Amino acid sequence: MRRMLALAAAALLLAAGCTDAPAATTTTTPPATTTQATTTTTTEPPPRVIPAAGPAPVGVDPESACMQRAVFGDPADSLYVLPFAAGERYRVSQAYCREIGGHRLQLAYDFDMPVGAEVLAARAGIVVDQRDDSPDDGVGVGEHNYLMIRHDDGTVAFYAHLMQDGLVATLGDHVEQGQVIAYSGNSGATSGPHLHFGVYRSWPPSEGYDVPVVFRNASGPFDLLGGLATDGVVEALPPGVEPARGPRPPSDYHGQALAGLALPGAVLWGYDFSGADLTGADLHGADLIWADFTGATLAGADLSTAVLEHARLEDADLRGADLSHAVLSEADLRGAVLVGADLSGIWATFPDLRGADLTGATLTDARFIAAEWDDATTWPEGYDPPPMP
Q1: Is 195 exposed, middle or buried (0-12, 13-18, 19+ CB in 10 A)?
Q2: Largest CA distance in the chain
Q3: Model pLDDT for residues 297-315, shown as the tens digit of each residue
Q4: 251-389: which CATH architecture?
Q5: According to CATH, what is the number of the domain 1-18+47-249?
Q6: Which pLDDT tens digit goes with each residue over 20-35?
Q7: Angle 90-96-101 from CA coordinates, rounded to 5°
Q8: Domain-by-domain residue ranges, the chain?
Q9: Which run of H or of E encompasses 72?
Q10: How many C-beta atoms surround the C-beta of residue 120 within 10 A?
């Protein structure tokens, strides 16, 4: 009875998942050997800021619980390989945490594989659940064929939309990594034949308790968080062939001297510029979601049309900065100095402006929606502050 209840719970859970599937350094030289000691100070150039490789994840809510779990490690250290044979190439039709589709809660991938393509075990383990009696007709929510394979650390891989009568490994079988375990199909509610793959922390599975997976033999393309990119065509590389990933750029520039930095249009999700000197920096049109500018100096910086959703700008110096037509939704601007800044045409839903100084700022056509401010907030003379939420 307990097993029947567990399987029923698992079926309901997975049916609720995938809709297309289931559920500045200072150096001092020594004194010269002369009658008068000479000290020379040389300042090294600031480190080069390199945007993270790859695009931002597509169609996700950066603040979602799923995205908070999307912390991908180094693929070279991964215990997983792609669930298809070396040399095969398939498109990632849906990546993780997608708001549109069925992966809103899931750190899962959909690989566009035709009916009858070999599915390989991404990791060794024991088959703990299965189904293979649904037709390959792309209809029927929760009616997908699947295998669930438990690994020796208790995690469970989920392979779904398998071909009817297409299981090679069955309940209780031990499978090795890279072994053919099934054939891809089009069972259950789908938008076309594909393989849904994800890993849960334990058995029975539960949404919100899955794990971010990288594959050590994936060719990419990767997004800036290190996951496989939506719409990318991924090749499974043979053993011994290293993907051409290149070094991952740093994202921590806390306290660095970066005055005059020019990275217009760069994707700098989550970068740490707290306490940094970015005087006169050109970041117009940059994607700065989640970026941390706490206590940073951005006087005279060009942030026009930049996306600063969820950015931390607490106590930042933005005097004379150009923020025209920037997106500041849910940005933290507590105590920020915006004296003389250009905020014309900004879009700001739920920004926190408590204690901010906007003396002399330009606010023509600025859109504040449910902005939070207090008596310590200073507005330009004659400006009618937005209503409090």
Answers
A1: buried
A2: 94
A3: 999 999 999 999 999 999 9
A4: 3 Solenoid (2.160)
A5: 2.70.70.10
A6: 333 422 233 333 333 3
A7: 90
A8: 1-18+47-249, 251-389
A9: none
A10: 22
